[in-house]
């Protein structure tokens, strides 16, 4: 039998009490609870969210990196890189979003939570590959989506859309070769065509 989900405002209070000063902020927006935790307390906060009787978030269902250097129309303020996780409690029928910011922009790093939830291992590898965020304590932190010789982190806001190199198969050399990008960067503006009788509408 599935338990009835707790009201978001009540869950906010429960989480705030469980985390104490490990949480920088606990808020409710659009019916969802978001917790921002201190980087120094990240692993302890996540362990508390997993183990505290009123929390019991047994599953980590998502983890991703973020680059806040250009986020919407807002002027960037504070640390550039962050990690966002989504936790689910099956037993208590509740979920929470957890954010932590990397203290250093030049070498973004936070603790790994792979020892708390096995599912975090590949998510953290993806965030490392795409954003260059290092997860301290991860036992196999290597690229997972890009090529072995790939340079840079393609989800960073300052990474060029066309990349730095392109690859092709060279029939004479019988192998894949890497070359500088030959595509001139350009900006495409979609052209909107409106028809008077589109979809039978007048």
Explain what this protein looks like in three dimensions.
There is one protein chain. This protein is α/β, with parallel strands linked by helices and 202 residues long. The chain has a domain at 8-144: NADH:ubiquinone oxidoreductase Nqo5 subunit (Beta Polymerase, domain 2). 17% of the residues lie in helices and 28% in strands. It has 3 helices and 9 strands, in the order H-E-E-H-E-E-E-E-H-E-E-E. It has helices at 8-19, 42-51, 120-131, and strands at residues 23-29, 32-37, 59-67, 81-89, 94-101, 109-111, 134-136, 165-170, 175-180. Strands 1-2-5-4-3 form a 5-stranded mixed sheet. It has a two-stranded parallel sheet with strand order 6-7. The protein has a two-stranded antiparallel ribbon with strand order 8-9. Strand 4 (81-89) and strand 5 form a beta hairpin. It is globular, with a radius of gyration of 22 Å. The N and C termini lie far apart (52 Å). The mean pLDDT is 88.
Unreliable parts: none
| CATH-defined superfamily of the domain at 8-144 | NADH:ubiquinone oxidoreductase Nqo5 subunit
Distance between the termini: 52 Å
Mean pLDDT: 88
The quaternary structure here is single chain
Helix content: 10-25%
Widest sheet: strand ordering: 1-2-5-4-3
Provide the CATH architecture of the domain at 8-144. Answer: 2-Layer Sandwich
Shape: globular
CATH structural fold name of the domain at 8-144: Beta Polymerase, domain 2
- Provide the succession of SSEs: HEEHEEEEHEEE
- Content-based structural category: alpha/beta
Q: What is the β-strand count? A: 9
Strand content: 25-35%
Integer-rounded radius of gyration: 22 Å
